[in-house]
Amino acid sequence: MGANEHGVCIANEAINAREPAAETEALLGMDLVRLGLERGATAKEALDVIVALLEEHGQGGNYYEDANSYHSFQSAYLIVDSGEAWVLETVGKYWAAERITEGVKCICNQLSLMTKIDAEHPELRSYAQSQGWWTGEDEFNFSEVFSPADDHLACCSGKDSLEKQEESITVQTMIDILRDKASGVCIDSESFLTTASVVSVLPQNRSSPCIHYFTGTPDPSRSIFKPFIFVDDVKLVPKAQSPCFGDDDPAKKEPRFQEKPDRRHELYKAHEWARAVLESDEEQGQKLRKTMLELEKQGLEAMEEILTSNDPLDPTEVGDLFYDCVDTEIKFFK
């Protein structure tokens, strides 16, 4: 997931499909997120970038940075800007997309697009027929055609919560949903961990800035959502950037990913300490969590003032916003 300076946001999810993802090295879903954000000034432009790259390079390869494990998968994307939203679901180089015009939409690890398709690969239906998955006589239903026979189920854990609050969704609403472990949105287990989270506000009023709240750390239930605004000369945040290994990076060597380097940044390491306290000392953990939420609340309130103000945003006042938030968080943990 990520965002760019044009207010385009892209989320990516691994999906199960009838056709397994290629094991040969190609573009990963996360690669396509980054490239879509790099090259797309609108949601539709980002979608066009992604499907063009799928056609040219395909998708596939190992998502694990470890030669001892292997997992490849197809991808779904939620692509939005302040004016429109798209759901894009892919199987190999083939794809279908729906333009979302109202309501709530989620992506998860199962295909969700059905008969309402607003754009698609030109050979999508002929490919499905060639594989014997669609006769061409029934109405074309993307998820039924491309899902495994036993895997076409409702799957979005957060959708019910969002629909119940659809008329009054706030940043805090989204943060609460992302922290919900009971529903399965937030996962913290030995085998899988929600690695990072973000909530983005994309105002309809183009004079107001887009504001993105990043954790930069795993498990949103134990992380602080910190505001970021794209402006010229924004201050970089080395303490929230993974270390650079140059030509020694396993991602640049061939064969790739034969070893797993320590990519933890300073904020990540400080957060590990906080997580240990929250798990081991109930009294101190409660105090720590209270202080963390208070820091987060201060950031939310400050950003709300910016969004409701009639005064134009002064870029110099927010250029070091995320830097200061990360610095304060680390100092607090220490």
TrEMBL record:
Q: Please give the InterPro entries that the UniProt record associates with this protein.
A: Peptidase_C69 (IPR005322)
Signal peptide coordinates? none
- Family named by the database record: Belongs to the peptidase C69 family. Secernin subfamily.
Question: What name does the UniProt record give this protein?
Answer: Secernin-1 isoform X2
Species this protein is from: Balaenoptera acutorostrata (Common minke whale)
- Protein encoded by which gene: SCRN1
